[in-house]
Each structure stands twice: as C-alpha cells, then as structure tokens.
Design brief:
mainly alpha, Protein unc-50 homolog isoform X1, membrane
C-alpha cells in the first residue's frame, strides 16, 4: 500500500512557519524596511485588475520560497484604510467617541480578523485535504490563506465603507426602487469581488485541483440579488440599521 502523507504539518514545518511568523511581526515597526509603494500597487490592482496579482504570488514563491507575504507594508496600509473608513462611517452615523472605539474594535477583531481566521482556516483545511494531490509535499500555507482573505476583503471594504457611506442617504434612507437596485448592486459587487479574489489567490498556486469550485457562490449570489430586487428588499438598510446598530444596542 502507498504511503499517505498526513495533513498535519511536521515539526520542522511548524518551526519554519513559526520563524516566518516571528520575522514578519518583528518588521511591523521597521517602516524603513517596508515597500509601501509596492503595497499601494497591490491595493490598486485589487480594485482595478485583481487577476494581475496572480503573477505577484507566483513570483514571491519563486524568489522567497513562500506564497505568504513577508512584508507588513500591505497590512499597515490595510489597517490604516480600515481605521480611516471607520472614522468616516462613525461620523456619518453620529457615533460618540466611545461608540467609535467599540465599532472600530469590532470591525478589526471581529469582522475582519475573526471572520478572516475562520474562513482562512476552513479553506486551508479543505484545500490541503481535498484539492491538493496527495503525492505533493507542498502544502497551502495558512499564512497565505489569511493573506488571500485580506486581499479579498479590501475591495468590499472600499465599496461598503467608502462608496456606500458617501451615498448613505440615497442607499439607506430613500427606499425607492432605483436606490434599492443600485444599493443592492453594490453589495453584489462587493460579494463577487470577495469570491473572485479568493479564487484567484488559490488558483495562483497551480497545485490545486477542481479550483473552479471556489466560483460556485457567484451564481448563488446573483440569484439572491435578483430575489432581493424582486421583493424590493433594501440590503443596505437591513445591514446598516440592524447589524451596525442593534448589535451594539445603539
């Protein structure tokens, strides 16, 4: 009988991952060592042409023997974007400073990091367990799975925390068919962005099979979108009035 590789990482791989993790976070406060111009470039293409980033992932693997980022510049800029958009969000909703702090903590540690850890861990397990050929020694790195989540989260952040809040009254307060149509379309675009960039991230590894399974949520999202338009359900109003308010009791 052939030998089957266990999914669990060997001790040497665990030590290697731990060393990469330490090196990464040691650089968080060393701004002179970060390439912010390259990080800005990645953010721009995540919005304009996310498929171009697949070449970046492959190049990183060729030059640095890992898919996951080793430069915290993207994380720093991502955190800055999250803070700035949250400030605008709280100003628009007339939050007090205390409410803003609670809102920011929930946005960072629950919505972004907490949900991201869950999604990254589930997809990391599924890709290594079911989509990777058993005879390949290379595994999908958990750090890369979380990187993919951050990449996929950035366009929805810009759409829902920046574009949406600029037109808050139109999308949330108006309630007519045109505002519901446009507002729900923004939510659909944000959701498709997340799914598509997630697909591109795992597709860039070129070792996974049946990778098109990652695109299955897109037609389901379109169906839900059509239903909300038909029933004139204002997704923006439901989310902003319920999720962002009721979860904090405001």
């Amino acid at each position: 009988m052939g030998h089957k590789e266990p999914l669990l990482l060997s001790q040497s791989n665990v030590n290697s991952a731990y060393q990469k993790f330490r090196r990464y976070f040691r650089r968080v406060f060393k701004f002179e060592q970060m390439d912010f111009q390259f990080a800005f470039w990645q953010m721009f293409y995540l919005l304009a042409a996310p498929q171009k980033l697949t070449k970046v992932f492959r190049a990183r693997k060729n030059f640095k023997s890992q898919f996951a980022r080793d430069d915290p510049a993207f994380l720093i800029l991502f955190a800055a974007a999250l803070i700035i958009t949250s400030i605008g969000f709280s100003l628009r909703l007339s939050h007090t400073f205390g409410q803003f702090l609670v809102f920011l903590v929930l946005e960072i540690f629950l919505d972004c990091i907490g949900v991201g850890v869950i999604i990254a861990t589930i997809l990391w397990y599924i890709t290594n367990k079911f989509l990777k050929p058993k005879n390949l020694p290379q595994d999908v790195e958990w750090g890369f799975a979380f990187d993919i989540h951050l990449n996929a989260y950035f366009p929805p952040l810009m759409l829902l925390h920046f574009v949406m809040i600029l037109f808050y009254n139109f999308f949330v307060r108006e309630g007519n068919f045109f505002s519901i149509f446009l507002g729900n379309s923004v939510w659909l675009a944000a959701s498709i962005y997340y799914v598509y960039i997630t697909f591109l991230g795992y597709h860039s590894m070129q070792i996974l099979r049946k990778i098109n399974l990652f695109l299955i949520p897109i037609p389901l999202l379109v169906i839900v979108y059509i239903i909300t338009i038909f029933l004139q359900m204002n997704v923006s109003s439901i989310v902003f009035e319920s999720y962002y308010s009721n979860r904090l009791g405001w």
